[in-house]
Amino acid sequence: MIFPNPTTDNSVLLVIDVINSCAHREYEDPARSIHYNKIRRMIPALSTFIASYKQLGGRVILTTTVPWQESHLPENINELYRNSEEARYWSQDTTGRAERFFQIPTDGALVFAKNSYDAFTNENFVHALEEMHIRYIIVAGLFGDGCVMASICGGFSKGYHLIIAKDLIETTDDEERQMLQQYLKQRTWPLMYGATVESQQILDAFSPGNPQ
Questions:
Q1: Which domains, and CATH codes, for the chain?
Q2: Model confidence over 62-87: pLDDT tens digits?
């Protein structure tokens, strides 16, 4: 059992930032050891999951970002980036390609662009959840130790019940980031934020005749 009563009527799948800037090889930064091989290996399974969840009648929300540049970001992020070269992550891409989705199905999905790590800072997104009478949010996407973590904290703080698809959340290949993400999946998320389970368990829970 994941939760007593998640249904496709009171739940939504939230897919965070599966976009070119977070997944495409052209947006890797070898000088800073930023590589997306593990992300690209995960995305086919995520795409299949999105399609399967929609076949069950589920609704899907996708997040992208505003252009990740100083003029589009809040002052707290800009201040962090100005003060810390290691933290700095401004983009130089002004083509709009960086914010496009990378190899996932988008048909029928609601799309929201965020200007912070936490998806719940977008008031239009929160309003859409309220209009749909959402209680449960299934979480997947990129990066587990970054925007996914921030959105998990944001959604939980707003009172939503979270179902976290641990095999459909990835981060960069960096060994330290991988270790941190594993700890989040194994300890932090299941103990503090919500059911952290394999995606097949989620599909089983929403399938007709499930004995939950």
A1: 11-65+96-206 (3.40.50.850)
A2: 999 999 999 999 999 999 999 999 99
